Amino acid sequence: MIALLSAWLGAGESDGMSADELARFNALPATVAREELLECCQSPAWADRMASGRPYSSARDAVRQSNAIIDMLAAAELEAALAGHRPVTDEPGPGDGEIDRALAASNLEYERRFGHIYLVSAAGRSSEVLLAIARRRLRNPPETEWRVVRMELQKINEIRLRTLLAGAA
Predict the structure, then answer these.
(1) What is the model's pTM?
(2) Are 76 and 88 in contact (CB under 8 A)?
(3) From CA 74, how far away is CA 46, in angstroms rounded?
(4) Is residue 40 within 8 Å of 157, Cβ to Cβ?
């Protein structure tokens, strides 16, 4: 997965956006940029650091900054970021009723075990895959799971940032 993500990040300098779209974001007043960034991630610390890190030369540059910030977020800020995410069972999925019920049960077990929402980058994944991931992650010790949550948040923020910086937000 990491190799695939790295290949995707390295594919093309334009990052799917025009210079005008990136210039628009870079030129926004800090408060407006912060509000747009909070649509990507509800961590105020993340949004503040991202807004103050402008100008970005590319979406790739912004994603690198985002990842570095997420790596440094304190637990309280990670929890603030999680507040902006719905349970994965709220996402429309291609699974059948039985799989979706098992996924909902795994979500509840995850929340009881770790005290926060099960965060996973669900884009393009079936309910069966999301269930398998949840079951595997339920075996993680809490410190390992927080590292996984950071990585999943980085993936989700990348998708959202690229959408924002492409002018589609």
Answers:
(1) 0.84
(2) no
(3) 10
(4) yes
Q: Is the pLDDT of residue 72 over 90?
A: yes
Number of folded domains that form the chain: 2
Residue 7 lies in a domain: no
Q: What is the enclosing helix (H) or strand (E) of 13? A: none
Is pLDDT above 90 for 30?
yes
pLDDT of residue 118: 96
**Tokens 């019920």 — which residue?**
101
Q: Report which of 53, 61, 59, 75 is spatially closest to residue 153, judged by C-alpha positions.
A: 75
> Could you give the CA distance from residue 167 to residue 102 in angstroms, rounded to a whole number?
37
The reply to whether 3 falls in a domain is: no
Residues 64, 52, single domain; the answer is yes
Cis peptide before 55 (omega within 30 of 0): yes
Tell whether the model's pLDDT for residue 3 goes beyond 80. Answer: no
* Residue 117: closest CA among 159, 96, 146: 146
Using pLDDT thresholds of 50, 70 and 90, give the confidence band for residue 15. low
pLDDT over threshold 50, residue 4 = no
**Alpha helices by DSSP H, the chain:** 2-10, 19-27, 30-40, 44-52, 59-72, 75-82, 97-114, 127-137, 142-165
